[in-house]
Every structure is written in structure tokens, then in C-alpha cells.
Structure prediction request, 573 residues.
Amino acid sequence: MKLIIDRIAGHKKMFFTAMFFLLIETFADLMQPTFMARVVDEGVKNKDVGRIILYGAVMLGIAAAGAAGAVLRNLFASRTSQTIGKELRADLYGKVLELSFENIDRLQPSSIVTRITNDVTQMQNFINGSMRIMLKAPATCIGAIALIIAQTPRQFPVMAAILCVSAALIAANMRLGYPRFARLQKRLDRLNDVSREFLSSVRVVKAFNAEEKEEHKFAAAAEGFADAGIAATRVLAVFSPLINLTVNMGIIVLLWLYDARDAGRIGRLMASVNYMTQVLFALGMVSNILNNAVRAAASSERVREILEEAPAQKKAASPLKPDIRGEITFKNVSFAYAGSSKTALENISFFARAGETIGIIGPTGSGKTTLVNLVPRFYDAASGSVLVDGFGVNDMEPETLRGAIAVVPQKALLFTGTIRENLLWGDGGASEESMRAAARLACADEFVDSFPDGYDTVLGQGGVNLSGGQKQRLSIARAILRKPKIMILDDCTSALDASTEAAVLRGLRAVSEHSGMTVLLISQRISTVMRADRILCLEDGRLLGFGTHAELMRDCPVYQAIYESQIGGGKLG
Ligand code: ADP
Ligand code: MG
Prediction:
């Protein structure tokens, strides 16, 4: 809630303009019945058409002012809430971009999405809704009660009694409704979680024929939501007729007590009854807004959690911006993922010269990806140091460090857009020739040229209209185009056939020899890494061997075992 108030405080001008128009609207609402009383008591009773027309005109004027007030109030209230929503989304997005992988792991990407979309909308609706009623409710209550006293002082005690009973009913309604609406919100969150999880894993669910199981889970969540909704609305269903009953009984009592002294004041009585309903309506609105407040408070809490997430990585006091050549040093590096007791890397030390190609081999889960992720500082080592050109990566300006590194992740990431846009994404200023050259080096030119639209072929989200191997080659080409000093290839030739893979590796070798680029080449296949200058052999986060293929064949039993299992009798030698 504090977040919402803070954000509104940032737009005082718009907010108070809206409030000003809200007061005009309220005032108009309050004046209408008073003039109606006059029409009835002075005009209708005396059959005085002139007066009827006069008061009618006044009422029309008030209605016009009220409508103008309402329209402008609406305009400013919407603008305030929309602006706050827009700013919150921008802030959240900016914050997420600033966070490290560790933070993102903790907050979970899909939940971040819900917060940026749904939760901000919830807050926005609350701000908009409360700006309709905020000042109006107390102003209406006070104004209407004062006017009841002015119009019909003799009937006031009865009206006050009706109002008290109805207000008590509304309060009881809120008391019972509030926790039920809170529960409704919880159930809705649960339903959202279940659907989100299902939708993000729909392929796996289908592959495992687990639709039925997921359906049950969803049905249970949907039923929970429906039950909570029914429980919440049941409360409303009981109370709103009760309130109506009270008001109608009250009117009967009023008419019962109506006597000769009130003759000629029937219009005033009508006006007072009208004021009474205005008060009740305002109270009803308040209780509605309070129900929305439950949701908005929960949403604002979730949004605040992101905004206040402390970045897991500290910025260097005076970050270094060296010209990076591409030397990589690991000194006794250990690492564990947050919330995991197991160490993913244990005491790793090695040194790679600039321009060298380092193969990294090891079974799944051995820590290959983790190791290379420490170089661009996607994560920070728990102990030991990672150095590039002899400078600690933590002491460097992240933009300088990452500007010199290109990462081709295990899962090729392409964006919606043309192939050209995707390739130029790493370096928007590259020329057409260098783009085509990069594609050629990554063996992507052939299949791109075979498309009718060539480089202007539009890719769907994540490159859905390409094969795995095509996506991998495009992401390698994109990385080459950046002309990095350090190239990280995380098992990104796995979907290529042997001869295409060999051609891609030759292309990379040529780039490396030409530009002095250091290459970290991860693979589970020995045939991919065996021609690297030197090879790191990992198992269970430990470094079992580091050397050339020949050295490892001689000294590293695990490497030999991998070789035996994959290549066997030396067919590939
Ligand atoms: P590889 O790339 O060799 O397959 P990884 O470096 O991805 O291995 O994983 C090494 C270990 O760290 C594994 O035990 C894996 O379960 C764990 N791990 C990887 N990523 C994360 C993560 N984001 N959070 C927690 N644990 C992780
Ligand atoms: Mg991996």
C-alpha cells in the first residue's frame, strides 16, 4: 500500500485536479434532489408551470456541470492510474534488466511476468477506482445528512435510525466479506500459478501423456477459485436485500408518520429519501473499494519485492575498462547456486592464453555451463578468482567485460523478427558483407539463401520455424558478427551433423587465428573438442584433467573412458 501512496504522491497535480472535479461531481449530485423538492413542493403543488420550468432549467444546468465534472474526473483519474501503471512497468523492467542471473533464478521469470502485467493492472484499477470515491464518500455522507436535516428536520431521527441500521449491515457485510475476498484472491493466484506452469511446460505434458493429471490439478484450482467466489458473493447476496428491506421499511415508517404538518412538503420528503440512498450508495462503494484494496495490497507487495530486490552483484568502486585481449585465468574457483547445498564447481584452476581454443568436456551436470558463466560474470564465484587479462572480472565494468565476450547458449535464443535483424542484433552497425561472411563461417548461408525471402525471412517467437541445427548456426553467426575477444560456445553444435559441425568448427578456427579470439568450446562429444588446443575435463564440478588430447589420453582416465565409449577402436583417431 505504501508503494501505491508513494506513486500517487509523485503525481500530486493530476491527482488533485481529479479530486477537484470529483468534488464538482459530488456537489452536483447533492444539489439535484433539493431542486427536485422545490419543483414538487412549489411547482407541482401550485400547478405553477413557470417555476417548474425555472427549477427544471437549474437542474439541467447542475446536471450538465455534474456530467462535465464526472467526465473530467474520469479523464484525470484514468490518466493518473495509467501513468502510474506505465511507470511501475518501466521501473520493474529496468530493475529486472539490472538484476543478475542469481536474482532472476530466485524471483522466477514467469512470476516476474505476472507481476509486470497482472499485479500492476490490479494496482492501477485500485488507484482508478479509489479516485472515483475517495473524497466523494465522506463529502456525500456529510453533505447528504446535512441536507436531510435542512429539508426535513422532523423526520431526521427516523432517517438517522434507518441509516444506522443500514450502515451496520454494510459494516457486517464488509467484516464477513473482507476475509472471503482475501481468500478469493489467494485462490486466483493459485489458479494463475497452475495455468502458468502448465502453459510453459505444455510440450512435456503432452510428451508424457500427463494431460489428465494436469487437468485434475487445474480443475482443483479452478474449483477452489469458484468456491471462494461463491462464498464471497453469497455474503453480498444476503446483505444487499437486507439493506433494501431496511430502507423500504424506513420509507413506510416515514409515510406512516407523515401528517398534516407535513402537507406541502412531500417533495422535501422525496429529496431526503433520495439523500439517504446516496449515503448508502457511497458506503457501498467504500466497501467495494476495500475489497479491491485487499487485492491491490497483495499485488503491491509482490511488485515491491522486485523493486526492492537487492542486486546479488556488487559494483566495483572504480571499475576497470581495459582493452581486453582474451586471456582467461581461474584461480581456485568454487561456486554453488543459491539455495543449493551442493557445490557446482570445486576449486577449479586453469589458464588459457589469448587466442587459444579450450575444449570443455564432461557429462551433463558436471558444471561446464556453470564454469563458462563465471567468465562474463553472469554469476559471481563463491571463492577464488576469475581473471580476464589478469584483471578480476568483479573489478571490471560489466559492459566492458561483456562487450568483449560473445556467448552462444546451449539453447539457441532467437527473437521475433527477420533473420537479418537477428544477426545484426549483436552489432547493429555491421555491413551486409560482414553479416553474410559471418553466416558463411557458421554454415548458415546455404539454408538462409534457400528461403524465398533470404535474410528477410521472418522468424516466429524463439525461431519456431527453424530446425534446431539452423537456430544453432544462426546464433553462432550472430556471435561471430560481434567480433568478440572471447567466444563461449555452450554445446551449441549438438544438433549439427558431423560434417556440418566440422565445417562450423573450421570457420571458428579461422576467425580465432585471424583475430586472436579465445574460444571456450563446450561439448559432450569428444569428437567436437579433441582438436581444441587444450581440453578441460570436468566431472561433478571437479577438474580432472587439463591438456591436449594426447596428454589427456595419456594421463586422464575419465577422458580415456569417454573416448573409449564414444569412439572406441580409434575409428576417428
Ligand atoms: P553442465 O553444463 O555440465 O551440464 P551445469 O553447469 O549446468 O552442468 O550444472 C552443474 C550443476 O549445477 C548441476 O548439478 C545442476 O543441477 C546445477 N545447476 C545448474 N544451474 C542451476 C541453477 N540455475 N540453479 C541451481 N542449480 C543449478
Ligand atoms: Mg550445460
The mean pLDDT is 91. Residues 368-369, 410, 490-491 surround magnesium ion (ligand 2) (CB under 6 Å). The CA atoms of residues 366 and 540 lie 4 Å apart.
